[in-house]
From TrEMBL:
Provenance organism: Anas platyrhynchos platyrhynchos (Northern mallard)
Protein name: UDENN domain-containing protein
A Pfam family the protein falls into: uDENN
Record-linked InterPro entries: cDENN_dom, dDENN_dom, DENN_C, DENN_Domain_GEFs, Tripartite_DENN, uDENN_dom
Record GO terms (molecular function): guanyl-nucleotide exchange factor activity
Domain UDENN: 2-419
Length: 482
């Protein structure tokens, strides 16, 4: 890859509830600009390393680690279980000694294959780990060292839709294709899934909570659902970037982090729900039950009207397309619902339109201060709120005072920079958005146009899915990553 990548093999070590132990890693020495992630064995088994009485199905999820320089490292983890023969020292019976049979395994121990990268390509890494796992468990005539070396030495093309075909060396063919614009989040179906799990009002509450710098905690029985929910909530903030602790999967040994005074977006397994029940300053979202809990001590600021009503209505029309015709005596024939990935992009398009209206005219309130060694861009908050007639608005004031908006100004304030979809939306489409108020068909048409642009940004990202046997191996690519 064009960014350093670690391959790590971690195995259960210790008594019935022990620790993970790194038994192999590649490269054996740190990359020059990337230190080895310490404590990664805690995140590979967030609930603790434990033996199992039965062989469990292999699992996959992605852990996000943030280093001291605020660089994120994406840890794709595939865990499977191997038999531990006579782990407890059980003695064979006389009949077994005579027949020469080995007693069956009493327990199974977890083993994790991990890829650590600064690149966020979870499905590609899932396929690569799946291939390595298949070669290992089926004892195929392929060198594992060769597979891993080929993976770590692959060069990923620059953004802009460039393609790269590579092979791990097992007769496979895999295609990486980068997004057209790095600045636009890649969400798959995670945003649509979050609304399916929690509903419109609850997600809007979480959206307002992160924008006004409150603590948000997800819990679920699925680690991958935790990762997806955190990814979805953060992506709804675009064009803002979340700058506080972001830990989609928090290990049991680090639950004290939840007492941190800073805002955060964190996910924990539902087995720890009793440990988080008494948190007084944290908004807790139950992904499996579809509810959120807002403590009484938290005053959650809401979107200003009429933007709140418009956003709720747009989300209802997109997520429940039959709502508008539900009362018709002669309803039109039902059409197939949008593909999950396109539905995901339509929801994101609604939030793009929302931010375009919230930040309309922000560039006219930028001031370039030259009294320092380097020019500094300052945003005149009072002038901006005064122009909008929202000086007393609690929500927008908190947003403008937040770290996410400060980062937005520093990144998008300079006059000479690459522009993306949001810049074009603010510059040319805000008046069109206002004109569509009260006209749902026109509004939905524009939402779908924006969704198409979001879809095209990643529509050529191929994910390798493979089947492999003892005689041949092949990878079949599809477009399931967008």
């Amino acid at each position: 890859m064009d960014h350093p990548l670690f391959f790590i093999l971690i195995y259960f070590s210790g008594p019935a509830e022990g620790l993970g132990k790194i038994i192999q890693r590649f490269p054996q020495k740190d990359w020059e600009d990337t230190p080895f992630p310490q404590g990664i064995e805690l995140f590979c088994q967030p609930g603790g390393w434990q033996l199992s009485k039965e062989r469990k199905q292999p699992t996959f999820f992605v852990v996000v680690l943030t280093d001291i320089d605020s660089e994120r490292h994406y840890c794709s983890c595939l865990t499977f279980y191997e038999a531990e023969i006579n782990l407890q020292g059980t003695k064979e019976t006389e009949g077994e000694e005579e027949s020469g049979l080995i007693p069956p395994a009493e327990v199974f121990a977890p083993k994790s294959l991990v890829l650590v990268s600064r690149l966020d390509y979870p499905e590609i890494f899932r396929a690569c780990l799946g291939l390595i796992y298949t070669v290992y468990v089926d004892s195929l005539n392929v060198s594992l060292e060769t597979l891993i070396a080929n993976l770590c030495s692959c060069l990923v093309p620059a953004s802009g839709g460039s393609q790269k075909l590579f092979s791990l060396g097992a007769g496979d063919r895999q295609l990486i294709q980068t997004p057209l614009h790095d600045s636009l989040p890649v969400t798959g179906t995670s945003v649509a899934l979050l609304f399916q799990q929690l509903g419109i009002q609850n997600v809007l509450s979480l959206f307002c909570a992160v924008l006004t710098e409150n603590k948000v905690l997800f819990h679920s029985a699925s680690f991958q659902r935790l990762s997806d929910a955190c990814r979805a909530l953060e992506s709804l903030m675009f064009p803002l970037k979340y700058s506080y602790p972001y830990i989609p999967i928090l290990p049991a040994q680090l639950l004290e982090v939840l007492s941190s005074p800073t805002p955060f977006i964190i996910g924990v397994h539902s087995v720890f729900r009793n440990d988080i029940h008494e948190l007084l300053d944290v908004i807790i979202a139950d992904l499996d039950g579809g509810t959120i809990k807002i403590p009484e001590c938290i005053h959650l600021s809401q979107l200003p009207e009429p933007l709140l009503h418009q956003t709720q209505m747009a989300l209802s029309l997109v997520l429940h397309p039959d709502l508008e015709t539900a009362d018709y005596a002669f309803p039109p024939p039902r059409t197939a619902l949008s593909h999950a990935k396109m539905l995901d992009k339509e929801v994101r398009a609604i939030f793009l339109r929302l931010f375009a209206q919230l930040f309309q005219g922000y560039r006219s309130c930028l001031q370039l201060i030259r009294i320092h060694a380097e020019p500094v861009i300052h945003f005149h908050k009072a002038a901006f709120l005064g122009q909008r007639g929202l000086i007393e608005n609690d929500f927008l004031t908190k947003v403008l005072n937040g770290m996410a908006f400060a980062g937005f100004v520093s990144e998008r304030g300079p006059p000479f920079r690459a522009c993306d979809l949001f810049d074009e939306l603010v510059a040319f489409e805000v008046e069109r958005i206002k004109a569509e108020e009260g006209n749902p068909p026109k509004m939905i048409k524009h939402v779908r146009e924006l969704a198409e642009q979001l879809f095209k940004n990643v529509s050529l990202l191929y994910l390798p899915h493979f089947s492999i046997d003892n005689t041949r191996s092949s990878l079949v690519c599809d477009r399931s990553s967008v």
